[in-house]
Design brief:
The chain is mostly helical. The chain folds into two domains: 178 residues, no CATH class; 280 residues, no CATH class. The chain contains 18 helices and no strands. The chain is globular and about 65 Å long.
C-alpha cells in the first residue's frame, strides 16, 4: 500500500477518524496496531505472520533478560541469531537460489514455485534494525523492558515507518506511544508542508527523472558521458524519492500526534564523507554509529594487540560502511559501494579532515564541496549500476561519446537533472534566507498545482522499499 495511492488515502482517513474518536490511549494504540498489520499485510498477508512471530520472540527474550540477568548474554545471542538469520535468508537468498535449484533438480526434486519466487519482505531491513536496537539497549541496561506487548508491537510495526523508516529509536517513540494524545490543530499546521513536499518530490521530481535514469542504466554498453549524466540524474532521483518518503511518513505520523525523526539535512551540501553520512539517512547512520562503529572502535582500543592510531581509526569506518553496504542489498554493487565510503571516510581522516572540518575561505569551501559532490555522484553510479563490470566498461573501455544518439540521451538526462533540481534548490534557499511567508505560500501553491498535473503520469514505488 503506497503512500501515494488512493487506497492508502481511504485507509488513512478511516484510521484517522477512528483513532481520534477514541480518546483512551490504550484503545488508540490497539487501533494503530491493527492498522499497521493491515497496512503491512495488504499485498502479502503472510508477511503479517513473519512480523508477528518475530515481534513476540523479541518481546519475550527481552522479558527474559529482565527476569534472568545472569542469562542476558544467552538471550541477546538468540535475538541476534534469529533476527540476523531471517534477514540474511531473505536478503541473500538470491545469491544462492540458482545453486539450490540445480542441487534439488540433480537429486530428482522439482523446485517449486515458492523456492523460485522468494522475495525480500518489504520493510524487513528497517523493522529488524528497530528490534535489534531495542534488544541491545535492554541488554546494555540503557533501556528498561517495562512496556506492554501492544506498545512494543506497535513500536516495531508503526505503519508510517515500517516500510522504509525512519528507523526510530525506542527512547523517542515508545514514550509517545505510552502518553495520552489529544488532537491539536498544530498537528495539521506542521504536517501539511511535509505532506505537500513529500508528494511533490515523489510525484513531480523523482518519478519524472526516473524515466531517463532507467533508460541510461538499462543500456548494455554505456559511454562515459552517459555514465556521468545518468549518475547525476540518479543523484537527484534518490534524494527526492527517499526524502519524499520520509516527509510523508513524518507528516502522516504527525497527524496522529507523533513527533518522528528527521532523516535528511541537506546532504548534498556536505564537505566531507563523514559530514555526508551525518546528513543522509540520519537514523540509519546513527544506528550504525552506536551499534557498529563505537563497539568496533572500543574493541580495537581494548584489544591485547597494539594498533597504531591510524589503523585504529581506519578500521571502524570501513567495517561500518561495509555492513551498511550489506544491509542495502545482496549484490556486489552494494558491497563495493559500502567499502567505497568506508575507505573514503578513512582516507579523509588520515589526512586530518573529519566531519566537523570546514575551510577558512569561501573558495576553499567551494572546492571542498565540489570534490565531495563528485565523490557522492560516483558513489551513486556504483549503487545504481547493474553490475561492477558495467561501471568498469563505461569508465575504461567505452569511448566518452560514441554516437549522436548517445550525446542526445546524455544531454537530455543532464537537462532534466538540472531542471528538476531547481525546485529543491529554491526551497533550500527559501528556508535558509527568506522570512517572507508569502514566498513560502506561493511555492507550496505552485507545488500543489504541479502535483495535480503530474499525479496520474506515474505510479512507481519508492526506491527504498526494496531494501
Amino acid at each position: 500500500m503506497a503512500f501515494t495511492s488512493y487506497v492508502f488515502l481511504l485507509f488513512y482517513l478511516t484510521v484517522f477518524v477512528l483513532y481520534w474518536v477514541v480518546r483512551e490511549r490504550r484503545w488508540q494504540n490497539v487501533i494503530l496496531l491493527a492498522a499497521s498489520y493491515i497496512f503491512y499485510g495488504w499485498l502479502q498477508p503472510w508477511l503479517v505472520v513473519l512480523l508477528g512471530v518475530s515481534t513476540l520472540a523479541d518481546f519475550f527474550l527481552a522479558r527474559g533478560m529482565n527476569a534472568y540477568p545472569n542469562r542476558k548474554l544467552l538471550f541477546i545471542w538468540i535475538s541476534l541469531f534469529v533476527n540476523l538469520g531471517v534477514l540474511a535468508f531473505f536478503k541473500y537468498f538470491g545469491f544462492f537460489r540458482e545453486g539450490a535449484i540445480a542441487a534439488l533438480q540433480s537429486a530428482g526434486i522439482q523446485a517449486d514455485l515458492f523456492l523460485l519466487s522468494i522475495l525480500l519482505p518489504a520493510g524487513l531491513s528497517f523493522f529488524t534494525l528497530k528490534k535489534l536496537g531495542y534488544m541491545i539497549d535492554v541488554y546494555r541496561g540503557t533501556l528498561k523492558h517495562s512496556h506492554s506487548l501492544i506498545d512494543f508491537a506497535l513500536y516495531v510495526s508503526f505503519f508510517p515507518q515500517i516500510i522504509a523508516g525512519p528507523i526510530e529509536r525506542p527512547q523517542k517513540l515508545l514514550p509517545q506511544l505510552e502518553a495520552p494524545r489529544i488532537w491539536q490543530m498544530d498537528y495539521f499546521y506542521r504536517a501539511w508542508p511535509l505532506l505537500v513536499m513529500g508528494l511533490f518530490k515523489k510525484i513531480v521530481i523523482a518519478n519524472s527523472i526516473k524515466v531517463i535514469v532507467d533508460r541510461v542504466f538499462g543500456l548494455n554498453d554505456p559511454t562515459g558521458f552517459l555514465l556521468i549524466s545518468g549518475a547525476l540524474g540518479f543523484t537527484l532521483q534518490i534524494l527526492a524519492d527517499f526524502s519524499a518518503y520520509t516527509d510523508l511518513a513524518r507528516g502522516v505520523a504527525l497527524l496522529l500526534g507523533f513527533e518522528t525523526s528527521e532523516n535528511f539535512n541537506r546532504p548534498y551540501t556536505s564537505l566531507t564523507p563523514t559530514d555526508f553520512w551525518n546528513r543522509w539517512h540520519i537514523t540509519l547512520s546513527t544506528w550504525l554509529r552506536d551499534y557498529v562503529f563505537f563497539p568496533v572502535r572500543r574493541a580495537l582500543l581494548q584489544s591485547r594487540f597494539r594498533f597504531n592510531e591510524s589503523i585504529a581509526m581506519s578500521i571502524p569506518p570501513i567495517v561500518t560502511m561495509f555492513i551498511s553496504g550489506l544491509w542495502h542489498g545482496a549484490g556486489w554493487t552494494y558491497v563495493i559501494w559500502g567499502l567505497y565510503y568506508g575507505v573514503l571516510i578513512a582516507a579523509y581522516q588520515l589526512i586530518g579532515i573529519r566531519g566537523e572540518w570546514k575551510p577558512s575561505s569561501k573558495i576553499k569551501i567551494f572546492f571542498a564541496w565540489f570534490i565531495m559532490f563528485m565523490f557522492i555522484v560516483f558513489g551513486w553510479a556504483i549503487f545504481r549500476a547493474p553490475s561492477i563490470n558495467w561501471v568498469g566498461n563505461a569508465l575504461f573501455h567505452s569511448p566518452f561519446v560514441r554516437a549522436q544518439n548517445d550525446l542526445v540521451l546524455g544531454l537530455i538526462a543532464l537537462t532534466m537533472a538540472l531542471v528538476y533540481s531547481l525546485p529543491l534548490i529554491i526551497k533550500m534557499l527559501l528556508d535558509q534566507y527568506s522570512k517572507e511567508s508569502w514566498l513560502q505560500g506561493a511555492y507550496y501553491a505552485i507545488a500543489v498545482s504541479l502535483i495535480l498535473i503530474y499525479i496520474n503520469s506515474s505510479s512507481s514505488d519508492f526506491i527504498y522499499v526494496q531494501f
